Amino acid sequence: MLLFLSTVCYHHFMNVTVVGTGFVGVVSAAVFSKFGNIVYALDIDKSKINQLQKGKVPFYEPNLEDLIQKGIKDKNLHFTTSYETAIKNADVIIIAVGTPSAPDGQADLKYVFAASKSLAPYIKSGVIIGIKSTVPPGTNEQVSNIIKSKTKVKFATASLPEFLKEGSAVNDSINADRVVIGATEQLVINTLLKLHRPLKGKKIIVTPESAQMAKYAANAYLAQRITFINQIANLCDRTGADVNQVTEVIGADRRIGSHYWYPGLGYGGSCFPKDVRELAAYSKAVSEGDGLFVKIDDLNEKRLPKLIKRFESKVGGWQGKKVAVLGLSFKPNTDDMREAPSLKVISILKKAGATISAYDPISIPAAKKILKGITYTKTPYEALEKADVAILLVEWDQLISLDPHKVKAAMKGNVFIDTRNQYDPQEFKQLGLIYIGVGRS
User: Fold this and answer.
1) Active site annotation includes 236
2) Packing angle of the helix pair 292-315, 341-351 (nearest 10 deg)
3) Contact yes or no for 206/2 (Cβ under 8 A)
């Protein structure tokens, strides 16, 4: 069953509880409170809840803190560590806890199951429990069985996958491309359509299994596009072709499109690496392990060390060189360091004998907890001061608008490695700088 629905009925405010105050949970709670619902965000981490109760977000996400503070001020948004307080009046409960990878590579559902077990004694009759955590098909049945073992109250489950991008999550929620509701009971579908009515985007009703598979499929496909163009970039490096020109040509085909071509060091962050690995592991578990997803993961894992080795040959080795690393988070507009290229790049460079100066406009506090033995600077030009080599890792606005003349004046050496292909090579070469891109002549 696949339905494309929109609803014009009056939006009734609901009591909504979000279990888990990580990235997805906090964004979801804030957005639902914006539209007048009474929202409780629940977490067992007392320090995190204390911070959120003061309107402070424990991570960087544009516009989110203002939205939370407004929800608190309007008395629509509450943060608590009490399951009873959060659950007892809820019409809809959204499970948004983490699902880290288990040793076998599949999603570890222990937090989803623990949340299900903890909330069960407090639910009221008719509540809908939606799973927003990224989970494999079949999880709803497991969650239902856990809750049924703890209560006789009638409830329903649904799948509510999220498709948020860090750095634009608030806008992604309010102006979504699509809102996916995985449910089969019409009453459940109608209730969830009412809850999501203020959100823009096509409302797509599918089975819970299809909704959960669609989340994995979406991320795996985007990761595949990055892996594909990286393979093309490798060929461009060997042939004198320019990958930026190649993407312009292929993007003109409406079947392909000019969007989402990101040649570079490979995909990173909190979702793509994890979700591709989990889909690969899930494929193996259902006897489809010889497919595409295992290869995508393998190619991405090997890509960064291979590229850094190629750069090393072009700069004459890293030993004794000062390298300015520009950008530390895994992408712009977030301070998330999970699977960030900087972690591997800096580790390789340090082991090879380089000294590192680093700049990032937002994520230095987060980076300092992980990356030791490097110099952090307040400006990009300070990082470039007397550097032998500069390497751009993240396309922050502040880092893709550098003045090449100031870059040259600050550096001792003359090698500028642009892993995001953001600059005009000729502009750098005319100043006597050696410009190295990815898949560019």
Assistant:
1) no
2) 40
3) yes
pLDDT reported for residue 12 = 66
End-to-end CA separation in angstroms for the chain? 50
What value does the CA radius of gyration of the chain take, rounded to a whole number of Å?
Answer: 24
Question: Which pLDDT does position 352 carry in this prediction?
Answer: 96
Q: What is the pLDDT of residue 6?
A: 39
Architecture per CATH, domain 3-206, reads as 3-Layer(aba) Sandwich (3.40)
C-alpha 351/C-alpha 346 separation (Å) is 8
Pairing of strands 92-95, 15-19: parallel
Q: 3-state DSSP call for residue 421? A: coil
Sign of dihedral through CA atoms 369, 374, 378, 379?
Answer: negative
Tell me phi and psi for residue 435, to 5 degrees: -95, 130
Distance CA 52, CA 394 (A): 29
Which sign, positive or negative, has the C-alpha torsion 88, 94, 97, 99?
A: positive
Amino acid identity, residue 200? Answer: K
Check 24, 271, 307, 374 and give the catalytic one: 271
**Answer CATH for 221-436 from 3.10.580.10, 3.40.50.720, 3.30.565.10, 2.40.30.20:** 3.40.50.720
Q: What's the rounded Cα separation, in Å, for the pair 132 and 155?
A: 17
Write the DSSP symbol of residue 120.
G
Q: Average pLDDT by consecutive 10-residue portion of the chain (441 residues)?
A: 43 89 96 97 97 95 96 98 98 97 93 98 98 96 98 98 93 94 98 96 97 97 97 95 96 95 92 93 86 92 95 95 97 94 97 98 96 97 98 97 97 97 95 96 69
Question: DSSP 3-state assignment of 58?
Answer: coil
pLDDT on residue 288: 86
Q: How many CA atoms lie within 13 A of 412 on its CB side?
A: 9
Long-range contacts of 407-413 (CB under 8 A, 24+ apart): 407/381, 407/433, 408/432, 408/433, 410/381, 410/384, 410/385, 410/386, 411/324, 411/384, 411/385, 411/386, 411/387, 412/322, 412/386, 412/387, 412/388, 413/321, 413/387, 413/388, 413/389
Q: What is the Cα–Cα distance from 139 to 228, expressed in whole angstroms?
A: 31
Q: What is the pLDDT of residue 194?
A: 97
pTM over 0.85: yes
Sign of the Cα torsion 149, 153, 159, 161 reads negative
All CATH 3.40.50.720 domain ranges of the chain, comma separated, are 3-206, 221-436
